[in-house]
Write a structure and sequence with these properties.
Elements lengths: L5 E2 L16 E12 L4 E7 L2 H7 L6 H18 L7 E8 L5 E7 L3 E7 L2 H10 L5 H5 L2 E8 L7 E6 L5 H13 L3 E10 L2 E11 L25 H12 L4 H4 L6 H9 L4 E3 L3 E5 L5 H8 L4 H7 L5 E5 L6 E5 L11
Parallel strand pairs: 6-12
Antiparallel strand pairs: 1-2, 2-3, 2-11, 2-12, 3-10, 4-5, 4-7, 5-6, 7-8, 9-10, 13-14
Protein name: Hsp33 family molecular chaperone HslO
Organism: Roseomonas acroporae
GO molecular function, one term: unfolded protein binding
């Protein structure tokens, strides 16, 4: 079963005011699974060439790019476990070299994200540590997970302090303290011969009483209950097996997700569920950014004008600049 990408079906003429960003779909980007008669379920996320398409547009240091790739894979894996319409996002804000890390994924798997680094701080950090951890890059701050289903729906948000060395440890701390769900998280991101690749392995211990954890996808509702005699032992065994995963396996395009899962759990009642697609999901457009500019007072717009007499707005997700002549944007007039 191939994990190869396919072109998106959106005709170019429908996106005439959008930048020429890659139209990539990875059909089996998220592979959900569960273990029969055991309190274990999870998702294996492989971004494949989508990682290069998303990360390669930014001229970041490899350590910053790796952090952004891990955030994208983690967000895709968490979003796939929820039933929602809208977007699910991960945001980390700290006082470190990377003051802002953001990734979001829609219910249909459209993925985008970016990491904003401060060059001077980064240069100083790299002089003392050429391969800084996520903790060193982010500093002290908070990690927020948000499910936004639009203006007419309640927005769910979980926020915790940044704790841990790696982003995987930070996510595990969130689930342990906020959701009280036993979770194993493995993240990997690296530049390969084929370009940047990113992956996530997320596994959860399912409640043995009262069904699955609240807020999860209804398609998991028929997940069998764990053996009431020793669910903790079943979870421990699954974790021991999952810990044998290597980054090389996670990032290997030639190793299909279902085959990798079979390697791990073939003796544990593995059941592979329907895969989900992931795609390039930047939603910027000239019309949308023009609307943002129209919200500024005219005097603020005047200050945005550059030497060439125009205003340039750059989308932080896809790193494409949109140029507006000052006369094109009137701005928000004062009331009265």
């Amino acid at each position: 079963m191939s994990d190869a990408p396919r072109p998106a079906a959106t005709p170019d003429f429908l996106n005439h005011d959008r930048p020429p960003v890659p139209q990539i779909v990875v059909p089996r980007g998220v592979q959900p699974f569960h273990l029969r008669d055991r309190p274990v379920r999870g998702r294996l996320v492989r971004l494949g060439p989508l990682a290069e398409a998303l990360l390669g547009r930014h001229d970041n240091h490899p350590a910053v790019t790796r952090l952004a790739g891990e955030a994208l894979a983690l967000t895709a894996g968490l979003a796939a476990a929820l039933k929602f319409r809208g977007s699910f996002s991960l945001q980390a804000k700290g006082d470190g070299v990377v003051p802002m890390l953001l990734a979001d994924c829609t219910e249909s798997g459209e993925l985008r994200g970016y990491a904003r680094a401060e060059p001077d701080k980064l240069a100083r950090l790299l002089r003392g540590d050429p391969d800084p951890s996520a903790a060193a890059l982010l500093g002290k701050g908070y990690l927020a997970f948000t499910c936004d289903q639009g203006p007419d729906m309640d927005r769910y948000q979980g926020i915790v302090a940044i704790e841990g060395i790696s982003l995987a440890q930070m996510a595990g701390s969130y689930f342990r303290t906020s959701e009280q769900i036993r979770t194993l998280v493995r993240l990997a991101c690296a530049r390969t011969e084929a370009g940047w690749r990113a992956a996530a392995f997320i596994m959860e211990k399912v409640a043995t009483e009262g069904g699955i954890a609240l807020g999860t996808d209804d398609r998991d509702a028929d997940l069998p209950a764990a053996d009431p005699e020793d669910p903790d032992e079943a979870w421990h065994t699954a974790c021991v097996l999952a810990d044998t995963l290597t980054d090389a396996e996670l990032l290997d395009d030639s190793l299909p997700a279902d085959r990798l899962l079979h390697r791990l759990f073939h003796a544990e009642g593995l059941s592979v569920d329907r895969a989900r697609a992931l795609s390039y999901g930047c939603r910027c457009s000239r019309a949308r950014l023009a609307g943002v500019l129209e919200g500024f007072p005219p005097e603020d717009l005047d200050h945005m004008v550059q030497d060439d007499g125009a205003i340039t707005v750059t989308c932080e997700f896809c790193n494409v600049g949109f140029r507006f002549e000052r006369r094109e944007v009137r701005g928000k007039r004062a009331a009265g």
